[in-house]
Amino acid sequence: MKIAILGATSHIAKNLVYYFRRDSHYELFLFARNQGAVYEFLKATEGELSPSVAGFDCFPGGDYDAVINCVGIADPQKQKNAGVELFRLTERFDDLVLDYLAVHEKTVYINVSSGAVYGTAFDSGVEGNAVASIAVNGITPADYYRIAKLNAEAKHRAMADRNIIDLRVFSFFSRFIDLESGFLLTEMMRCVIERRPFYTNAVDIVRDYVAPSDLFSLVKLCVASNGINQPVDVFSAGPVRKSELIALFSRDFGLETRIDEEAHVSTTGAKLAYYSANHVARSLLNYIPALTSRDAVRDEANVIIAGMATMHQSEGLSSGHRSRSLGGC
Asked: Where is the NAD-dependent epimerase/dehydratase domain (predicted)?
């Protein structure tokens, strides 16, 4: 099957590329603004498949069984300063795919959305009948990201005759994450690597980190789907508390933790329990995650710690190994 991935340099896209390259059933077409970064990633990770790499302008001319849209601004630090670009970026690449679907009716469109569409109040896991609200006369920058994502999902539902699945990712952590991004786990990892204390408040939040392998399994089920047009919440085999993560990092990596009530205030609102209890993916796609959030984080953190030296050595490698360019499309 021919799979196109838009935004191939994004965190989630890197994980999908990593796993797809190890499955001979697929042919990959990767699209990104920085194609050199894609080549560097392909050489650093290796794999059996040799993906095609090109700019976004080459995308419309291809023939794909499925398109996975990973374009977006997920980093909370970048979201804070993105402004209107949060909307423009989402709309530009979503419309690029929707225009493609207008001609290629059988192509499956998998859009990476976010649990943020549920709003800003997360006191417990969201259910399938959840209702999101917004102060229509008081929209703030903290609302931009979720409105952009929800707007895209609404357009997809309006195209009911197309196979479009919006994967709502709540939390994701892997060996390929940018440790400079402003997430809870990246700060914990940096504290471990730099051997300095981790400052956090006393609030014991809950998060759901889907394992990269489980996310890949879900994406493959979506690729093989037929006639589905709806959102699907992404979930692991079980969420995890911050206190459990701290205990894990303390025991396995020697993390020292100190309480600071001003630490780790989310730029997109307080999320005490940011996870979904809407498990429609089980019945709709037969998706059964294998790993809990705790186990997923532990496994990926171990790879980061063990591979720090190798990862540094791989920076700046020349491009082009085991991949091919589409050239002039």
From this structure: 3-223
